[in-house]
Design goal:
mainly alpha; about 20% helix; about 0% strand
Length: about 60
């Protein structure tokens, strides 16, 4: 959770004075702009190999 906060909320907080629209970023709450991914880690699998590195992973809808 600390890494997510440092990559989303902290930069938004630092830049709010310059760009007030960033008050809606980096937070999960009503009225905020949020890009989130919800997934089941039991179903996610990486299909890429050294021979075929461009293979898509599976388990995300």
């Amino acid at each position: 959770m600390d890494a997510v906060r440092k990559c989303s909320l902290e930069p938004a907080k630092r830049l709010e004075q310059v760009c007030p629209e960033l008050r809606k970023k980096g937070r999960l709450r009503a009225g905020a702009d949020a890009d989130i991914s919800v997934f089941d880690p039991e179903r996610v699998i990486d299909r890429a190999t050294y021979e075929k590195p461009a293979q898509y992973s599976e388990g995300f809808r």
